[in-house]
Design goal:
The chain is α/β, with parallel strands linked by helices and about 260 residues long. Helices cover about 55% and strands about 10% of the residues. The chain is built from 11 helices and 6 strands. Strand 2, helix 5 and strand 3 form a beta-alpha-beta unit.
Length: about 260
């Protein structure tokens, strides 16, 4: 029996197989291409700048239990300053398109409803109701909402710092998130409670920070289209900065008039 025709067929089949495999290697995987396209740009510059700072593209702001009743119990920071700093975070999130999740344990009780400025200045904020859980991380819907954003850096503020911020912050850290606690957008019944909480944050790997630091880290450069809007936020965290801006503007106006 002549085996040459069968051999030729096998050779042609082998060549086709090699060609198909080569195409599979050379052509990009559509799903891999989609994943690459969906990956947000890194905030780390070629110089290495930003490597240790907040990444806007990976950040999620959690504003927890800023309830009008609880605010009246805060003694470690002035209420007007606390509210102003919280408003700044809400406005910053809107300008830089950072997702926001809010929550309250029991808004119908004496703790009261959430301060309305949050929803006013961050209308994109997602409210997740809780079923009385003191620790937001005990609530399954809340944790699902956090994970659904795909963000791994959590910026948390709330009232009280020693409870409503610390409990979910430590749990989120244990769950693999990078967690920042914004101390001056949070409040406690006293200085000692706040100091003990900050010590526990450090022990647990949660990073204590301030609203001014969050603003500056996410701002990064004046060479950006939102610069004018961002500049106004500095007056919320540092009121004297507004006086500096006003005096500068006045000097510029006088200079123009004398030309």
């Amino acid at each position: 029996m002549n085996s040459r025709p069968a051999l030729n067929v096998l050779k042609r089949a082998f060549r086709c197989l090699v060609a198909v495999l080569a195409m599979g290697i050379l052509l990009p995987n559509p799903s891999a291409t989609a994943q690459t396209a969906a990956t947000p740009p890194s905030s780390v510059l070629p110089t290495g700048g930003g490597q240790t700072l907040l990444d806007v593209n990976d950040s999620l702001i959690l504003l927890l239990d800023h309830q009008t009743g609880l605010l009246q119990t805060v003694k470690d920071i002035g209420i007007s300053e606390l509210r102003s700093n919280t408003v700044m975070l809400a406005k910053l999130a809107t300008i830089l398109k950072i997702p926001v999740i809010t929550s309250a344990s029991e808004p119908n009780g004496p703790n009261g409803p959430l301060m309305p400025e949050i929803q006013q200045f961050a209308p994109h904020a997602v409210y997740v109701p809780r079923k009385g859980e003191v620790n937001a991380w005990d609530n399954e819907d809340f944790v699902k909402a956090v994970r659904a954003t795909g963000r791994k850096t959590l910026i948390i503020a709330g009232v009280w710092t020693s409870v409503c911020v610390m409990f979910p912050a430590l749990d989120a850290k244990a769950a693999g998130f990078k967690v920042y606690a914004v101390i001056d957008a949070s409040g406690d019944p006293g200085q000692l409670a706040s100091q003990a909480t900050i010590a526990r944050f450090v022990q647990g790997g949660v990073i204590p920070t301030s609203t001014n630091a969050v603003l500056s880290e996410t701002h990064r450069t004046w060479n950006r289209p939102e610069a004018a809007e961002i500049a106004k936020l500095y007056a919320l965290v540092a009121p004297n900065f507004q006086a500096v801006a006003e005096s500068y503007q006045k000097a510029q106006d006088v200079a123009k008039q004398t030309k």
